[in-house]
Amino acid sequence: MWCASCLASACAGCTCNLCASAASAISRRSARLAYCGLFAASLVLSFLMRQFATPLLKQIPWINTFDYTQPDEWFQMNAVLRVSLGNFLFFAIFALMMIGVKDQNDRRDAWHHGGWIAKIVIWVVLIVLMLCVPNIVITIYEILSKFGSGLFLLVQVVMLLDFTNNWNDSWVEKDEQKWEIALLVVTVVCYLSTFAFSGLLFMWFNPSGQDCGLNVFFITMTIILAFAFAIIALHPQVNGSVMPASVISVYCAYLCYTSLSSEPDDYACNGIHRHSKQVSMSALILGMLTTVLSVVYSAVRAGSSTTFLSPPSSPRSGKSLPITRYPVGIRVLAVYLANQQWNRNQKSFTR
């Protein structure tokens, strides 16, 4: 018994030392990816809460205030929203604290890069406190999240377009035939994938013998937009490239699929309702990965690029070093919108 107690104390001490070392390492490097790590942890926690927290929420009187039995899906979505709200409040607090910070001589810049043990504690406390919030607050947050998820889709398109343009420019600048051929191959593969996937959408969401005019409209508009993107990119006044347009076309086809797959299982035009659980899980995982990659990319670009949300120049050594304008303020918008998209994915899954 004494040996086990000593072993447990030693393990606890090692864990604390490891956390302290990790926190100090983060403070010496850019904190951008650390904030993204907290956001990714909130997604994982949301998933775990949705899976296992339903019995707990049913025992909390200010959450389970109903005279009738609510389905488990309601408690699952409520758990996700509470984690999302706590995560948003954490980033909002630091965003407000960082308003007006322009260089590293500002004392508040140290708050941005350091104190990670305290930050993790605050993050955990805020999420736990969300379990004490009445349902009306969560309902209001859920309504706001519907608008946030739509706005985040536009933000994702901007990020994807920025990424593909940089990708296209880097290969064009090599000025070698093999890279031009590679660009052509990527473009052709993307367009073939878009049209092939659209054909599958017609099969899945326009079953024979059913009047699915609305589904056909959205799928057709996706195909029309794919052609429109290519025409606009090739227009002389735009001076664009077809490769970014092809990638955006694939992304639009994916968005069309996620929207149509969120239709009710008993809807006659939802042809994949027999495999709804498997399809929803795959769509949920893919949506989560897309969300995390978008937030990580926005954080990296916002902190290091001179063309995306960053000042156009940097002073030389010996002067105060600039930091990204509102480094956490911009990031909190991305995190808030990403939270809303995660909520949207969770709603589609629980249907």
UniProtKB/TrEMBL annotation:
The keyword Signal does not apply. The chain crosses the membrane at residues 32-49, 79-100, 120-138, 181-205, 212-235, 281-300. It is a multi-pass membrane protein. Keywords: Membrane, Transmembrane, Transmembrane helix. Pfam families: Serinc (PF03348). It is found in: Membrane. InterPro entries: TDE1/TMS. One of its GO terms (cellular component) is membrane. The keyword Lipoprotein does not apply. Belongs to the TDE1 family. PANTHER family: SERINE INCORPORATOR, SERINE INCORPORATOR, ISOFORM F. This is Serine incorporator.
